[in-house]
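Severity: low
Component: inverse-folding endpoint
Summary: output formatting inconsistent between runs
Steps to reproduce: submit the following structure tokens with default settings.
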């Protein structure tokens, strides 16, 4: 089928012998989310190794001879489903093919190979993905056996007409997420330990997230050049309203013209989001299509009564 090429599929040792090859291809594919060796050791090594019952983050590679030309990564996650049951799943990320090898069907072939290898390992019930809606890559996923589960729309608020509030009493900059774990069992979201949150949000090797807490609630902000994205938030609705106000104040003070986040139609905290003045639509981020592929599960991913999925494109960066 591919005359003149020597294609081969195998695991990529991202934190060892193959790190430089992985970095080179990753940064070619995702120029807006370039990574370093420190990032790979942190995300693939430390975060990927937190779940002691898991085999960690894996990257499947497509090679042409000795050249790495395609990557497909999956990290271990735990998802809380409607009945409170914790389901082991994977999150697919950093997937792509070297531009010189595109339009050859290799994306689908690499995806099918990785999925079959994951089925042999049978560590997860499902693997979940969160690509941007409307991108051609979604069609490639479907050809490899993925199914659409739901859509996450961007919601935003323009801060230019927002009047700042001076009430920040009691809120604090988070230095340890152990104080804010009251919503760990919330159905329709990823379970994340305090150790994970500390490592993920407070110890990123390159990026500084803004993390604020009050009582049992927290909010995590990721600033960009001219807007700010709410990466995650959990807690009680009344206290979250206070933290949302603080987020709007910070965005206003720094000159970020917009504060945004993603929400599914059945977002658990949708009333809070709407009451804080957020409306559907955004000028900086695209909608997200949540897709799933069966690994050990016998049936398709079940529809969620409610969910809290604040992760999406560039979640890991």
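Observed output (run 2 of 3):
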């Amino acid at each position: 089928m591919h005359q003149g090429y020597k294609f081969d599929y195998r695991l990529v040792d991202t934190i060892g012998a193959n790190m430089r090859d992985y970095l080179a291809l990753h940064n070619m594919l995702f120029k807006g989310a370039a990574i370093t060796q420190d990032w790979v050791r942190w995300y693939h090594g430390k975060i990927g190794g937190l779940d002691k019952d898991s085999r960690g983050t894996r990257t499947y590679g497509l090679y042409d001879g000795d050249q790495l030309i395609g990557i497909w990564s999956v990290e271990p996650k735990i998802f809380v489903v409607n009945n409170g049951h914790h389901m082991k799943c994977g999150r697919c990320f950093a997937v792509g093919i070297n531009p010189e090898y595109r339009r050859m069907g290799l994306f689908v072939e690499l995806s099918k190979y990785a999925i079959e290898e994951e089925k042999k390992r049978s560590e997860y019930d499902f693997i979940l993905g969160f690509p941007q809606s409307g991108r051609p890559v979604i069609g490639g996923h479907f050809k490899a056996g993925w199914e659409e589960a739901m859509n996450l729309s961007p919601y935003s608020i323009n801060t230019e007409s927002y009047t700042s509030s001076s009430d920040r009493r009691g809120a604090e900059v988070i230095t340890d997420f152990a104080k804010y774990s009251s919503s760990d069992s919330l159905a329709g979201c990823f379970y994340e330990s305090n150790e994970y949150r500390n490592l993920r949000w407070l110890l990123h090797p390159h990026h500084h997230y803004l993390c604020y807490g009050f009582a049992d609630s927290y909010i995590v902000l990721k600033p960009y050049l001219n807007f700010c994205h709410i990466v995650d938030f959990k807690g009680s609705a009344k206290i979250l309203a206070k933290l949302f106000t603080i987020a709007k104040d910070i965005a206003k003070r720094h000159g970020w013209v917009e504060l945004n986040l993603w929400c599914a139609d059945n977002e658990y905290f949708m009333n809070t989001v709407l009451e804080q003045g957020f409306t559907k639509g955004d000028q900086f981020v695209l909608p997200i299509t949540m897709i799933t592929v069966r690994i050990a599960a016998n049936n398709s991913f079940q529809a969620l009564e409610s969910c809290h999925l604040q992760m999406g494109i560039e979640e890991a960066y």
